[in-house]
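Changelog note: in this version the structure field was regenerated for every chain. One regenerated record is shown below for reference.
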Amino acid sequence: MAKFWNFVFFQAGWFACVIGAANQQVLWPVLLTLLYIAVHIWRSPQQISELKLILKAALFGVAVDTLIANWGLLSFGNPWPSAYLSPAWMWTLWALVASTLNSSLAWLRGKPILGAILGAIAGPMSYEAGVRMGAGAWGVDGQIGGLILLGLAWGIAIPLFFYWDRTPIKGGLVKNP
């Protein structure tokens, strides 16, 4: 049941942040999504490991989105805190994705090829949906290039995040062999 609610809160957070960005109203969606992430970490059996994973994923996402935006392939709605960085609401979405790895996406653990394929497809589709909802815009001739780069980034991201989450469990085993 926890995996179901993790999926539901992921979807709710994604829609809230994207709709908020499309309407230049991201403060409350970001705060509520961060509150969910904080509760998720608090309820995690390995809180420090979960926090580290979420922070690493968010930093990875900031780098990816900032590069794609600075290359002119994609612009984001509501660019706070800086026009030179990806927006804070996108940082929140990357953290939100990481919160699914040990819950609703745990079935991908140990399947890096499948994770890469799903990441390479679902990641860019998520951006395209966000653009169509008004949370961003593709640059001039940037849609194809942007989607390809996002596919590469997300194809790397999902297996990488699972690799980063190689945390020890009881008996000396590792969660992600």
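Spot check on this record: Residues 2-172 form one domain. The helical segments are 2-22, 27-43, 47-70, 88-98, 112-132, 143-164.
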